[in-house]
Amino acid sequence: RLSRASVGRLSLYLRRLEILLREGTTKVSSGTLGEALGVTDAQVRKDLAYLGHLGHPGVGYAAPELIDAIRRALGVDREWLAALAGVGNLGRALLRYRGFADRGFRIVALFDADPAKIGQRVEGLEVHSPDAMAELLPALGVELGVLTTPAESAQAVADAMALAGVRGLLTFAPGVLRRPAGVNVVSVDLTVQLEQLAFLVQHGGE
Amino acid sequence: RLSRASVGRLSLYLRRLEILLREGTTKVSSGTLGEALGVTDAQVRKDLAYLGHLGHPGVGYAAPELIDAIRRALGVDREWLAALAGVGNLGRALLRYRGFADRGFRIVALFDADPAKIGQRVEGLEVHSPDAMAELLPALGVELGVLTTPAESAQAVADAMALAGVRGLLTFAPGVLRRPAGVNVVSVDLTVQLEQLAFLVQHGGE
Ligand SMILES: NC(=O)c1ccc[n+]([C@@H]2O[C@H](COP(=O)([O-])OP(=O)(O)OC[C@H]3O[C@@H](n4cnc5c(N)ncnc54)[C@H](O)[C@@H]3O)[C@@H](O)[C@H]2O)c1
Ligand SMILES: NC(=O)c1ccc[n+]([C@@H]2O[C@H](COP(=O)([O-])OP(=O)(O)OC[C@H]3O[C@@H](n4cnc5c(N)ncnc54)[C@H](O)[C@@H]3O)[C@@H](O)[C@H]2O)c1
Known about the structure:
- The structure is a homodimer of 206-residue chains.
- Chain A is an alpha/beta fold.
- In chain A, 46% of the residues lie in helices and 17% in strands.
- A seven-stranded mixed β-sheet of chain A has the order 5-6-4-3-7-8-9, with helices on both faces. Chain A has a two-stranded antiparallel sheet with strand order 1-2.
- In chain A, β7 (144-147), α8 and β8 (168-171) form a beta-alpha-beta unit.
- The mean pLDDT of chain A is 92.
- At the A-B interface, α1, α5, α6, β8 and α9 of A face α1, α5, α6, β8 and α9 of B.
- The structure holds nicotinamide-adenine-dinucleotide (2 copies).
- One nicotinamide-adenine-dinucleotide sits between chains B (85-91, 111-114, 117, 130, 148-151, 153, 157, 172-174, 188-190) and A (93-94, 96-97, 99).
């Protein structure tokens, strides 16, 4: 089983490999991949061992093959349909971001509790009342939910999405979310990235 | 020297410790900290060894002491002043987010290239033209920059902030940013978190 930390690294190896391949590099060593992320090559080899026997001792990994294996492991070799609840500033910024669709994540349903927003169209999608989740999400085959509501409504929205069949939630709302049974939750706190930056600046950087 | 991955873990240990302390736990083992993040206790001990001799073999770490040491190492025991460029959807969501100020990160200057936005006030701050950076940032003592501009203007804005004395940049703009000399860059791609979620859902979760 891979830990969350290893999964996060797989995503970063994937981006590194895609840049290297674009630059014409087809063979890559665990050292090259590790250097970019600040991990030892032993850690890289351990992470990649999860994908099966891809590397050749002394020669390294074939970049195209490794890219395909990581995409399969991460499940980004297919499309994921998502619903977004809380069509405010952050919700709108996520809706406009092309990076999600490029990796196969499509937001196909919008929900908001503000009567003034219900019925409007944002980035081509109609905003529905949260009451419509139970009917709409199974009909569309939505598996993921993105929560950009205020903290106080996040739990109720998470539970409603879980009841409607959603199997994974990405939440931006601060505070601890009780994980609905059978649903995976990843929470984002952008302060973590600011702390990383503060550390680098404080210690004179890389 | 700590790798980016270890620094990211320090932030997550910090949040875990703060929750445990609020619940009344004062002694914590490396196993307890590691479990929450999916890392081995050997990795936790290695990360924390950077902070000095805090743990007592067999007894664990004193939570309050460890919290202080992590805050000092991350540089969040002090205030950081930041400037934000690109006051659009994402910029506004970041401005309203209380999580930053709670950790000592204060956004004190706003910049946007849209003439219709320059001179307006957003969340109590006046929006300036990017031309005003060279004068304003040193005068305010701003050390960090947050980039929420479109991808095509990110490099120019990063270089202008670097010239004005900024020492660290948090960028959301897609694409690779050339690191201005002497400046640290952390880039955020929220697709990485969605991939983490897809992995958990695909493999039946935790
Ligand atoms: N984790 C981070 O790093 C980070 C960064 C920025 C913002 N945030 C968080 O993201 C959330 C959104 O921020 P924002 O600036 O976009 O806020 P916003 O006020 O602009 O948007 C919130 C939206 O949620 C809607 N809403 C309220 N209750 C709802 C419910 N029960 N069901 C569906 N929709 C509901 C509101 O009508 C509004 O449209 C906040 O919780 C904020 O704290 C987190
Ligand atoms: N990394 C991620 O996960 C992620 C997620 C969402 C959005 N984004 C990115 O964040 C950025 C902002 O997204 P948004 O939805 O808020 O866009 P937006 O269009 O709402 O906001 C962009 C703002 O930047 C301003 N701007 C343009 N050129 C500028 C310049 N030279 N100097 C200063 N300001 C300038 C515009 O006037 C506008 O106000 C985009 O690059 C987007 O791709 C990244």
